Amino acid sequence: MTNSSSPPRHVTVLSVALAVVAAITSALTFFVPDILLGPPVTDGNARGTALVILAGAVPVLLVAMVSARRGSWRGVFFWLGSMFYLAYNVFLLLFLTPFNRLFLFNVATGSLAIFSIAALIRAVDRDWLVAQMRKVPFRGIAVFVWTIVVLNALAWLQVIVPALFAENPLSFLEGIGVATNALYVQDLVFWLPMVAVAAYWLWQRQTMGVLLTGSWLVYGVIESIGIAVDQWFGHQADPTSSFASETVIPYMIGLAVVNAVAVYFYIRPNRQDGVVTSRPGPDAIGGP
Q1: Would you say 285 and 205 are in contact if contact means Cβ atoms under 8 Å apart?
Q2: pTM of the model as a whole
Q3: What is the DSSP letter of 181?
Q4: Contact 52/90 with Cβ under 8 angstroms?
Q5: Could you point out which of 70, 77, 124, 267 has its C-alpha 20 to 30 Å from the C-alpha of 285?
Q6: 92, 110 Cβ separation under 8 angstroms
Q7: Are 15 and 63 in contact (CB under 8 A)?
Q8: Distance of alpha carbon 27 from alpha carbon 70, whole angstroms
Q9: Is residue 278 predicted with pLDDT exceeding 50?
Q10: Least confident residue range of 46-60, 125-139, 205-219, 223-237
Q11: What backbone torsions phi and psi does residue 239 show, to the nearest 5 degrees?
């Protein structure tokens, strides 16, 4: 994908299909009573997530896709970031809620999200993308990302490590109706390592690091809002459960604001907006 041509048709087709299937699935999850079969707290969390998908991630995806197809380099980050959000959360809807009638809908959403992400990353002209950016504090943002990764990992490990040596290792799963916590699985196996590596590439001023980190920051804004919403719904569904808490909400809103500030430094206007700039060298970002 370059500044002078639209993305290949298959990228758009995949993304539109993803948006449609995700919208249908989230609408069914949120509006159809008793379609979820888990404990009240996890069903509440899932309904909150479905609301954010329907009212937030899908509209962001569609608007960003149209914007990027019209030549906006900023739209690329929002396009990819919203798909990161869909891929991340459909995994939780598949594995953090008991099997239900929406299983195949969620499978379709997950498959479309994975292939849409891969297709867009492959199609993006990263050299052109980063050539449009000016005075971005790449290394400062890399440090911020690493800080979030470490804090996130520590938050999960402080639950996991004591459970490994507890008399009943499954005690921290009581009341959520699953055999393990899929949130810990996908964060520690894939997302946190991926983001840490992307930040390292950003530190080295590699174009892939710019694309992945900027998109992850957009994801972070949506995800933080999503956590605040799903925690509220989960707490309302079961105020006695420790798996959802209203005390988390202010922290998530604050994290959303911090991520939004980082996104601003990525996409803020500069004097050369609207001017096609020369491309930097392969896989490197020129300038200070």
Answers
A1: yes
A2: 0.92
A3: -
A4: no
A5: 70
A6: no
A7: no
A8: 29
A9: no
A10: 125-139
A11: -65, -15
Contact 15/83 with Cβ under 8 angstroms? Answer: yes
What sign does the CA torsion over 102, 103, 107, 113 have?
Answer: positive
pLDDT computed for residue 118 by the predictor: 98
Say how far apart CA 198 and CA 138 lie, in whole Å: 11
Cα gap 110→184, rounded to integer Å: 18
- Using CB atoms within 10 A of its CB, is residue 106 exposed (0-12), middle (13-18) or buried (19+)? buried
The CA distance from 191 to 187, in Å, is: 5
- Label residue 272 by pLDDT band (50, 70, 90): low
What confidence score (pLDDT) does residue 12 get? 96
Q: What is the DSSP letter of 5?
A: B
Please, where are the H alpha helices in the chain? Answer: 9-31, 40-52, 58-69, 73-95, 103-123, 126-131, 138-164, 182-186, 192-203, 207-237, 248-267
Q: Which two tokens stand for residue 163?
A: 């459970």
Q: Can you name the residues that pair with 5 across neighbouring β-strands?
A: 2
Residues with Cβ within 8 Å of residue 172, at least 6 apart in sequence = 159, 163, 181
Spatial neighbors of 215 by CB under 8 A, at least 6 apart, are 76, 77, 80, 81, 84
What is the pLDDT averaged over residues 218-232? 98
Question: Can you give the pLDDT at residue 275?
Answer: 45
How far is Cα 31 from Cα 22, in angstroms, rounded to an integer?
A: 14
In the predicted structure, residue 211 carries a pLDDT above the cut 70:
yes
What tokens were used for 46? 């899932």
Give the pLDDT of residue 288.
Answer: 30
Query: pLDDT tens, 140-171?
Result: 999 999 999 999 999 999 999 999 999 999 98
Q: Is the pLDDT of residue 121 over 50?
A: yes
74 φ, ψ to 5°?
Answer: -65, -35
